[in-house]
Amino acid sequence: MRPLAKDDPRQIGPFEIVGLLGGGGMGRVYLGRTPDGRTVAVKTARSELADDRGFRTRFAREVAAARRVGGPFVAPVVDAAPHDDTPWMATDYVPGVSLADAVHDCGPLPERAVRLLTAGLLHALTAVHAHGLVHRDLKPSNILLTAEGPRVIDFGIAYSAADTALTMTGTALGTPGFMAPEQLVMTGPEITGAADVFALGGVIVFAATGGGPYGSAEPQILMYRTVHEEPRLDDLPDGLRELAAGCLAKEPERRPALPALMASAGAPGPYGDWLPDPVAVQLRRLSAQLRDLGSPATLALRPPAAPPAEIPYHQLPTRAADGAPPLYGATPPHPAYTPAPPLPHPPGQTPLPGPSRRRVLAALSAVGAVAGGGALTWALWPDGGGGGASAGNKPSGGTNATGSPGHTAQPSGRLPQQIRDKGIVTVGSDIAYAPMEFTKDGVPAGVDVDLANALGRELGVRFRFENATFDSLLAGLSAGRYDLVMSALTDTRDRQQGRVDGEKTGGGVDLIDYLSAGLALVVRKGNPEGIKNPQGLSGKTVAVQRGTVARDYVDELSGNISGKLRIREFDSGAEIYDDVAKGRSAACLDDFPVAALSAATHSGGDVLERAGEQLDPVPYGIAVAKTQTALRDAVRDALDRLIVSGEYAKILKRWSIEDGAVERAIVNGGR
């Protein structure tokens, strides 16, 4: 829990607000108190979402779903106002630590605790299913460990037969790694309570081992493994392996029913001393904070036999990549989406080395991705319509042949004839790469999307993106599948000359530089530890995502600074920012475009900030085949016009990366 900032409310409905419990892309969760001292968790929606009628409908659905479910293992709704200016919902609050945080901080739970956890969750699911609901997002971060047992929270994407108007066919909602196969395959069977049983199997594996049933990987790979591979259960104790294996059966009808699972798991409780000492200590601290606030909430936990030993940072277990914000009624794919040809490489193939790397696209499932990694296409229209256009990104004038405002009358005469004839520029991209790795209303979004939209207006054509694996993009450009490639391509001499590891592999490309990006440090707001550059990390703790350039950077840094650098590794980008926000790490290191936006938006933008300048910035370029000089020059000149007009600066400001601006569109300016 964190103190309230000056802009935080002091009263929501009948509740006095006394602290901030957390926040994310959808809103904030506050600790509230009733006049008689009862504590509640008050979940609020962000103001811009409150203006969205569709979001209000989904928020009201969440309130209705949560109100229908009761029992000791589900956080009951105390009050709600989904139609207030700022929608809110209050649930009972008992000091609790999410299963994700508990395992990350203190290690896997012992077998007895996992059995008691499972028993409580089975009773929670029974209560959910008794009302015709399917939770659909049971995962470690949606499970609280309390002194009285586990509690299931967050009914943001719960489904019932009565909600068919709000649940679209072909829309995958949930968290990869815990979603059932039928949630991932669009032509699969109907989603029933068996999907929650599958997720429970994943939770058992996570609680007992510290990792998910399909390992730690990007969402695309986790989804592929879920559909096509067997879960990894070797590290489970014998007593839990059979239980988890039954839950994780691929076919819904083969998964055990809840009564059979209850008989296997045993009774739910007693919970008096069910948690290991390190977790119990965390709960005591939360309880002490509440007592300091004058709350009567207390914990009846047995004292540990001895103070728990501190776990060295390098021995801390890792958690599965489940840190994505809940997809509250994520929207269906935009009509501009159509399936593209299959990827030329199997999921999981290592991308070409480079200063950027494949990252987690947290809401990939919300844009209708096919399990196994099928490619996607979407269109950007010159007037700002179509998938991916940002609000407020409308052209100021011009008409098309039919007289509708906003379109240029004709494609630019500087474009090659074949592009003028079709009116489309096809762009290859991997949407799992910064700076285009975000979603807005369920549609891919980012700097590249907004910039392509603006270029389309300048050139009078439509930009159509095709998603593919990063390492196939330049080959696709060479083969004529794409006209351009925009995907965090660093401008290097080797790429210009078509060389990989010193060997000639193609005709090379021209790169129109449009952004300067490297790595960036993010710290808590106000920079309490005064970190201004990498040397300021000496003797401190830094959070990084494993398998990234940032991870390599801190390894090298460790040998070049005087004080020991402690490193905490995570499987997703969301986790590293959370770690800094909670004060566990002094800073995190990430790709500049992601770091800048995350610092500006995490928990409303008043928790984190960037520290110092970019580290090792390099130019990103729009790739054009060497033979397409007319297209190259047309795009370069259009980008220069956007820079001069100020539109380019507005786009970068929208994504909080003004520091990455280039002064003009230079071709092959990198080395």
Layout: helices, strands, pairs:
Layout (H helix, E strand, L loop, with lengths): L10 E2 L2 E9 L3 E7 L5 E7 L1 H4 L2 H16 L8 E5 L6 E5 L3 E3 H8 L4 H20 L2 E2 L8 E4 L2 E4 L6 E2 L20 H4 L9 H16 L9 H10 L9 H10 L10 H8 L11 H16 L45 E2 L36 E5 L36 H6 L1 E6 L8 E3 L2 E3 L1 H13 L2 E6 L5 H6 L5 E2 L7 H5 L1 E2 L2 E2 L4 E16 L16 E5 L3 H10 L7 E5 L2 H9 L5 E5 H10 L6 E18 L3 H17 L1 H8 L17
Helix pairs in contact: 4-6, 4-9, 6-8, 12-18, 12-19
Structural account:
By secondary structure, the protein is α+β, with helices and mostly antiparallel strands. It has four domains: 1-93, Phosphorylase Kinase, domain 1; 96-296, Transferase(Phosphotransferase) domain 1 (Transferase(Phosphotransferase), domain 1), CATH 1.10.510; 338-511 and 625-655, Periplasmic binding protein-like II (D-Maltodextrin-Binding Protein, domain 2), CATH 3.40.190; 517-617, Periplasmic binding protein-like II (D-Maltodextrin-Binding Protein, domain 2, 3-Layer(aba) Sandwich). The strands form seven sheets. The chain has a six-stranded antiparallel beta sheet. It has a five-stranded mixed beta sheet with strand order 12-13-17-14-18. A five-stranded mixed beta sheet has the order 23-22-24-21-25, sandwiched between helices. Helix 12 packs across helix 18 and helix 12 runs antiparallel to helix 19 (647-654). It is globular. The model is unreliable at 160-172, 294-375 and 383-409 (pLDDT under 50).
Provide key terms for this protein.
globular; D-Maltodextrin-Binding Protein, domain 2; 671 residues; 19 helices; Phosphorylase Kinase, domain 1; 6-stranded antiparallel beta sheet; alpha+beta; Transferase(Phosphotransferase), domain 1
